Amino acid sequence: xxxxxxxxxxxxxxxxxxxxxxxxEQRDKLSDRLAGSSGKNQKTIxxxxxxxxxxxxxxWDEEKTLNEQANLQAANxxxxxxxxxxxxxxxxxxxxxxxxxxxxxxxxxxQSLNAPQATGPVSVQVDKNPGVQYEISGGINNxxxxxxxxxxxxxxxxxxxxxxxxxxxxxxxxxxLQNVIQSFKEADSPDRKNIPAPKGVx
Length: 202
Known about the structure:
Elements (H helix, E strand, L loop, with lengths): L1 H10 L13 H11 L6 E5 L5 E6 L3 E2 L9 E5 L4 E9 L8 H14 L2 E13 L2 E12 L2 E11 L3 E10 L3 H13 L2 E2 L16
């Protein structure tokens, strides 16, 4: 059932892509610098279940409508930069591996695209956890996009991080998306949302 759930999660995936007209070159360069800035110009977005967090440039916003199954969503819509995280407990799977989870979710995502192409895998480390990443391109809603599909394995979860932009912007947006992916952290237990004890328990 867990595998069927994972397939459903991605097969119902809906990319919220907004195609904007080209802006002046100077405005583009200024916006790019802001989008890729770090330090005090960063902000942290925590998942709805308190499981994990990412850091994004300050001109990104937390989102709620990119994917109904995602527990973390953020975007810079004017610059066509998007990221979602879907976290699944490892205990819901039987005999699952990092590569197996990547394949399961990646294939389902690819099925949602027109004329998909994929390159990879590339082994990555995210917050000292092992991961595997593919770059996937294709069409959705008559728009060509390029996505970085990253699967990260922690002690208790498989985290799917999907970050994307429109095809014409991938060369300049790839470093920004990679920085966002690398900022991913699984929250320590003290940082998780507090769960009240049942009544009568001291």
